[in-house]
Amino acid sequence: MIGIIAVLIGLLLPAVQGARSVGWRVKCANNLRQLALAAHEYHGAQQSFPPGLQQFRFSSAPQYRGSSLFVYLLPYLEHQAEVQGWDFRNSMNNTTGARQARTAAMVPELLCPADRIAQNPLEKAGCYYGMTSYGGNGGTRSYNPDAASVDGIFHTTGPASLPKPNQQPVRQETIADGTAHTLLFGERNHDDRAFESFASANWTDPLQYVGAWSAVGGKKRIADVTMSGFAPINYRLPFTYSNRTSGRPPAGSSSAFGYYEDLRLCAWGSSHPGGANLATADGAVQFFSEELPLDVLRALSTRSGRELTGGY
């Protein structure tokens, strides 16, 4: 009898897990659909999409401080209370209050149920940050900011924007490739054991530190709220710290590792098997295979590149 029950459980468990996985993917797609709708409502009110990260420069650390696209979108997701009284000029003021800080808010619509986030809100240097599983389309390259392509929908804006100062938000009429053929939002994957081996060696921050929806302080915080077509969907490091010289090019030094860090922090990805949910600028959400050719992904990432998308 016990053996029969064990067999039945063995048969049922994959079905239960499969149903849960499908449910998570559907919930995630719905979150992205709500984000796309919020972005269009914002555009209707402000005549542009929100900044990826509006930045100002200060004389004290962190020198770069800003407010992210999610700060601007939360009122359009019926989360006005979370950003009520937000300080847009000196964004680090929003971290006061520890777990009660504005930056610490956990927003369900910004979280994929399949995403493995170890700590939410995340505590870093005494400040707390609510995390997100999603990011806006930063174009063909979103990170690092000094090398950003600024050819997607979301990038740094304002007096301290990078790679050039005073970059402006994107208007829908500049999407020459067509809204159905241009990405708007997508998923981030926080799981990469090879990458974490470099974090353990203090060559980078753990992936769990990336994805604060507020992105208030630091030159490189655009990585928290955008991804791009610089790397394939679900890209993970192909080697660990211990065999870092096996890479092509080798990651024999922390500076050489920067190339791989950029790839990983740009990559769309998910914990859904085989690909990731991505929303296009017309508001549609589709599950894109991790086998999608990189040139097609990059074509989808640009707003006015006029590339063919290959009938993805």
Question: Which descriptors would you attach to this protein?
Answer:
alpha+beta, 6 helices, 13% strand, five-stranded mixed sheet, single chain, 312 residues, three-stranded mixed sheet, 10 strands, globular
Oligomerization: single chain
Spatial extent as radius of gyration: 20 Å
Number of helices: 6
The gross shape turns out to be: globular
Class by SSE composition = alpha+beta
What count of structural domains? 1
User: What's the end-to-end separation, in Å?
Assistant: 51 Å
State the low-pLDDT regions, or none. none
Estimate what percentage of residues fall within beta strands. 5-15%
Spatial strand arrangement across the major sheet? 8-5-7-9-10
Secondary structure tally: strands = 10
Largest sheet: 5 strands, mixed
Mean pLDDT: 93
Write down the secondary-structure element order: HEEHEEEEEHHEHEEH
Helix content: 25-40%
Secondary-structure blueprint of this entry?
Layout: H1 2-46, E1 53-57, E2 64-68, H2 69-73, E3 122-124, E4 127-129, E5 134-137, E6 156-157, E7 183-187, H3 193-200, H4 222-225, E8 226-227, H5 254-266, E9 275-280, E10 285-289, H6 294-301
Parallel strand pairs: 1-6, 5-8
Antiparallel strand pairs: 1-2, 3-4, 5-7, 7-9, 9-10
Give a brief outline of the structure.
By secondary structure, this protein is an alpha+beta fold. Helices cover 27% and strands 13% of the residues.
Write structural notes for this entry.
- With 312 residues, the protein is α+β, with helices and mostly antiparallel strands.
- It has one domain (18-301).
- 27% of the residues lie in helices and 13% in strands.
- It has a five-stranded mixed sheet with strand order 8-5-7-9-10. It has a three-stranded mixed sheet with strand order 2-1-6. Strands 3-4 form a two-stranded antiparallel ribbon.
